[in-house]
Structures are given as C-alpha cells and as structure tokens.
Amino acid sequence: VHQSKLDFFCKLGYGKQDICKVLDNLGQEALEDDVLKELIRMGSKPQALETQPQPSTLKLVARGSCSTTPGSKWLGEDDSDSSDHFRPIVIDGSNVAMSHGNKEVFSCWGIQLAVDWFRERGHTYIKVIVPLWRKEPPRQDSPIADQHILEELEKQSILVYTPSRKVKGKRVVCYDDRYIVKVAYEKDGVIVSNDHYRDLQNENPEWKWFIEQRLLMYSFVSNRFMPPDDPLGRHGPSLTNFLSKKPVLPEPKWQSCPYGKKCTYGNKCKFYHPERPHQAQLSVADELRAKIKVSLSLGKEEELHNCSP
Question: Which of 62, 78, 97, 239 is the most buried (most CB within 10 A)?
C-alpha cells in the first residue's frame, strides 16, 4: 500500500521525501484525498508545474472571423483574408457581363470593371463565377467580347468556372447560381448581381435571408461600375458599412433648439444650444439667482472700498 501510494504521487510530480513525511503523519491507510490536501498544505508543488515554461500569450480573435490555424482552403483562398476588414465579394459573372453588353453580348470588359472597382476599395477576396462553356469559342447565338480577359482573371485566381460536360453531344451544365450563393453564404460575403435568385430563396430558408440582406445591385453608366450608396434602401446601412465586416456607426447629430436663446427649459431642454457649449444648462430661475448673487457681491465690495480710510 505504501509503495502504490508513493508511486501514484510520484507520477503527479511530488517529491518522495514530502510523500513519506505525509504518510508517516497520517498513516499508511490514509485516503489519497487526505494525502493530497496535506501535501498542498505543506506547500509542496509538483515538479512538472515548477519546471514547465509559462504559456505564450493567446491572441484574441473576434467572433465570426477566420481562425489563424491552417484549414481547408478552396477557390484560391489565401491567408490575407483573415485580417481583411472588408467582406468577401462573389460576382455573378454572367449577370455582370450580359448587363454591360446590353443583354446582347457577353462583355468580359464589364467583369473587369467590377473587379477593378472592388480592388480600389481594398477588397482582397474577389471571386467571379462563370459557366465553363463560356470558355469555348463564341457562336452567333452567344457572342462574347474581350474573351481574353477571362483568361487573365483565371491566371490571377479570381475567375472560377463552374463544371460542365457533354453527354452524347449534349452539354450538361451545372447551375452556376447555386455555386454563387453557396460560396457567398459560406464565406459570409456579398453577392454582386441584379438577379434576385427567387428559386434558390424558396429552396433554402437560410439562403432566403442571406440573399435579401447581402445582395448588392449595380448599374453601368458610361463604362463605369456603380453600385448604390444605399444597398438596402433609404433606412438601411451605407455602402461602406454594407461592404465592411465591422460597420462604423455614424456620430449622433444634435438637433438645435428651435427656440434658441428664448428657450425657458434650461437644463431640462433636450435640444442643443450652440450659444452655451461649455456651460451647464441652468434653468431661467437659477440663472436669475446667480446674476443677483453676483450683483450683491459686487455692491458689498464697493461699499467696503468706499468706507475704508
């Protein structure tokens, strides 16, 4: 029994002398909890705790941000996305290109304009999703302009093709809209498109809320990509807050008092008085009392000055 307890506490890191001393005082039949309490009371510490180095300071990571541990990366994700202050951007390439081409030509230059606009704002995670068959030579029923831009964006790991294949001469195309919404939803980003994706909203209730709150519409004005300043309406967030992971709240604007200097509410007035920015807002009665006290004190000083020889 003595040897078994001695081995047990030695494994915990306590010294043999301290263990033997405690066992002699408490007896060989003492419980392990009692022995451990006595070792702690004596001030004996496990050697492992004394010799182990102090743990390195942990870095606080905001909830919802990407972890610093290496994980699965897909669609060309790089490490700079975790420190990015802007939301990831997923562009509906077909919608943007056809919109720039006036719904007649697949204009790749429109995709380039949209990518450049987000790059200038500082976004690092930008993905353009286009069906694979757009890589084929253009036909009369589907003309493509500036097709070389797709190759350049693919080399920059910005453009991603959705898969497709031919079965018995017929092309089998995957639904690119589902790719767009899925990538943006999993990355907690923004969808750039004028499509409302109503079929996908009915398919998945979680996607319904996401599409309603994270869909960024746009317009092309003279080869200029222009999203709205109020993506969610007049009472919604600004474009800067809409594209940021941490929106900045606007500073409160104080409304000036409509009565101005004639206001009789004093410190109870809820409006801003520019004529007294650094003074305590006193009521009218308190202001009159203060003026009377000042006038009385000045009168007493004059009387004392006149009476003095």
Answer: 97
The one-letter amino acid code at 262 reads K
Per-residue pLDDT tens digits for 33-70: 777 777 777 766 666 444 444 444 455 544 444 444 43
Domain ranges for the chain = 1-42, 89-243, 251-308
Please state which of the four CATH numbers 3.20.20.70, 3.40.50.11980, 3.30.360.10, 3.10.20.280 is assigned to the domain occupying 89-243.
3.40.50.11980
User: Beta strand 144-145 with 106-107: parallel, antiparallel or unpaired?
Assistant: parallel
Tokens of 264: 């009789």
Q: Print pLDDT tens along the chain (309 aa).
A: 667 777 777 767 777 778 788 777 777 777 777 777 777 777 666 664 444 444 444 555 444 444 444 334 444 444 444 446 899 999 999 999 999 998 899 999 999 999 999 999 999 999 999 998 888 888 888 889 888 999 999 999 999 998 888 787 787 888 888 999 999 999 999 999 999 999 988 888 888 999 999 999 999 998 899 999 998 888 888 898 899 988 666 555 567 788 888 888 777 787 777 776 655 555 566 667 777 776 766 666 666 556 555
